[in-house]
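Human: I hope this is not a bother. Would you mind checking the protein record under this note? Thank you for your patience.
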Amino acid sequence: MTLEQLAAQSGVAADKIVAYTKAGLLPCKDEHATFSADDQYWLDMVNCFLENGSSLEDLKDLMPLCEQCAAN
């Protein structure tokens, strides 16, 4: 799906998705690429962490660990 489609489906503004992508918080590392259902799952997780008080800096360390655990 496109960035605009992901934004519409997730309710997260496109500029925030771009920021999260550039910060390395989503599996898709290029905001111009096609996003997948996996990216939407990880976006939901990022939002959950942020809504519960985590900072973007916290997530820069945490999300790669989550991705690694999910791959195993």
The CA atoms of residues 48 and 54 lie 9 Å apart. The mean pLDDT is 90. Helices lie at 3-10, 14-22, 37-51, 56-71. DSSP finds four helices and no strands in the chain.
